[in-house]
Amino acid sequence: MPANLPPQYLEVERKLKTAKTALEKIAIYEELLAMIPKHKGTEKLQALMKTKVAKLKEEMQRQPAVARRGPSFHIEKSGAGQVIVVGPPNAGKSYLIKALTGVEVEVGDYPFTTRFPAPFMMPYENIRIQLIDTPPITPDYLETWLPEIIKVSDGVLFVADLADPDCSATSEGVISRLREKKIELVPEHHPVPPEKFPFLKKTLLVANKNDAPSAAENIEELRVFFGASLKVLPVSAKAGDGIGELRKGVFDLLQIVRVYSKVPGRKADLRDPFALKMGSTVLDMARAVHKDFVLNYNFARIWNENGFEGQRVTRDHVLQDGDIVELHI
């Protein structure tokens, strides 16, 4: 049976030739796994990818502990944005990532199953968003490198444990620990000046295990405790409740627009959009396509669902989600 791999697969696979670290290779293999169609013809390929990921993780664990101390982890951003998943022990972060990505993640019913940052790709409609699984945080325990990874990320998913009788207090303990490292978790629409980007992180509070006996009471407590500062989204990673809404929440958290490039005289390719920050202009789009497009820019035409049918626009025209842009140089 043919594998029927998508055309983007080979393009992503070529990145393996330039990947230097185990973490970079894991990120690429996870992205490839998410692309592989799930049927009998791809079972061997899926198994091969999972084996390679497992060996790379094992290789990382064999490295001397001294090499893992300090801010030594760097995960290159991939996809439409990078979101760090944080939370207290046993909140179900890894189960949540598994539910969002469809990729097997090491999980366990004991604290500190996750020991290293691990990248995964979450599909959302026609884009992919990078999620980073991280070790748990407590008032007394925080990996020295974790704050630095959070600071360069595009956003944070904070996972609270609704099965914990002291859910709100436990969550506040983690948030306070991050605050000690100059990291403030803020709502998705909170203004973040460029100079404050490393310290103010747009955050979605994911209340996991909403099927736990204490869930309803804990959800209300979280909303009272954090409602004015963070949006609370109840889900159940194991049961799959709220996962679709959470994917949309992650997309909204990034505050990006998907813009499609159109070559003059041809139809637009709607399979592979450019992901740009809200407020981006036509000139920003030209820069994303190629730096020479900015230098030689002449004009642009736009198509969208708001009535634009090839209208000519200025270079500082602000783009909307779904715009089709035809650049002329």
Give a topology summary:
Blueprint: H1 8-13, H2 22-35, H3 43-62, E1 82-86, H4 93-101, E2 118-124, E3 127-133, H5 146-152, E4 155-161, H6 167-180, E5 184-186, E6 200-208, H7 215-226, E7 232-234, H8 243-254, E8 256-262, E9 274-277, H9 282-289, H10 291-295, E10 299-303, E11 309-313, E12 324-328
Parallel strand pairs: 1-3, 1-4, 4-6, 5-6, 6-7, 8-12
Antiparallel strand pairs: 2-3, 8-9, 10-11, 10-12
Helix pairs in contact: 2-3
Write a concise keyword list for the protein shown above.
329 residues, alpha/beta, 3 domains, seven-stranded mixed β-sheet, five-stranded mixed β-sheet
Descriptive report:
With 329 residues, the chain is α/β, with parallel strands linked by helices. It has three domains: 1-63; 71-254, Rossmann fold, CATH 3.40.50.300; 256-328, Ubiquitin-like (UB roll) (Roll). 33% of the residues lie in helices and 20% in strands. The protein contains ten helices and twelve strands. Strands 1, 2, 3, 4, 5, 6 and 7 form a seven-stranded mixed β-sheet that branches. It has a five-stranded mixed β-sheet with strand order 9-8-12-10-11. Helix 7 links the parallel strand 6 and strand 7 (232-234). Helix 2 (22-35) runs antiparallel to helix 3 (43-62).
